[in-house]
Amino acid sequence: WSELFSLFEVQVGQVLVTKDHFSRRKAKHTRDMLSALLEHGIIPVMNENDAVATQETRVGDNDNLAALVARLIRADTIVLLTDQEGLFTADPRVVPHAKLIPVIQCINNEISTAAGGSTTPYGTGGMITKVEAAHSAAQKGIQTIIASATRHNVLIDLVEGKQVGTLFIGRQS
Description:
- Mean pLDDT is about 90; it is low at about 120-125.
- It is built from six helices and six strands; from the N terminus they run αβαβαββααβαβ.
- By secondary structure, it is of the alpha/beta class.
- The strands form two sheets. It has a four-stranded mixed beta sheet with strand order 3-5-6-4, covered by helices on one side.
- Helix content is about 30%, strand content about 20%.
- It has helices at about 1-5, 25-40, 60-75, 110-115, 125-140, 155-160; strands spanning about 10-15, 40-50, 75-80, 105, 145-150, 165-170.
């Protein structure tokens, strides 16, 4: 990340966290640390601190880590990039006639079933962890977009308001 961002003369700082960093006891400190980095023009690159995380303090995957960070900083949107265009009615690699679901108002059993589990050796949880993260974010009014990392200019299209991938509507309870 450091090499990539240096092309734009932007500094990055690795931030290693565990679930404990988002607890009531430590959340303010974590939020203040992220704010300080951003105020100094440093982009935080966050990862789970696998070296010190215990079973109780493990987040487990980057999708749920993104939801924890979004909730902490009171973001309005999370973008989760993956190898699929978004959430489909079934796994499109297995079911060729599966349809992309453009908008999801409510995460229910049907949506969770469509998400399935991890089907690649490279991911921690596949689409299901993205749906879990979207559900967690939605509880705080944060919308989540799942889109393809291979789509040319995907982030620019999203910023321009184009319908890309699957949008999970954020609903506060």
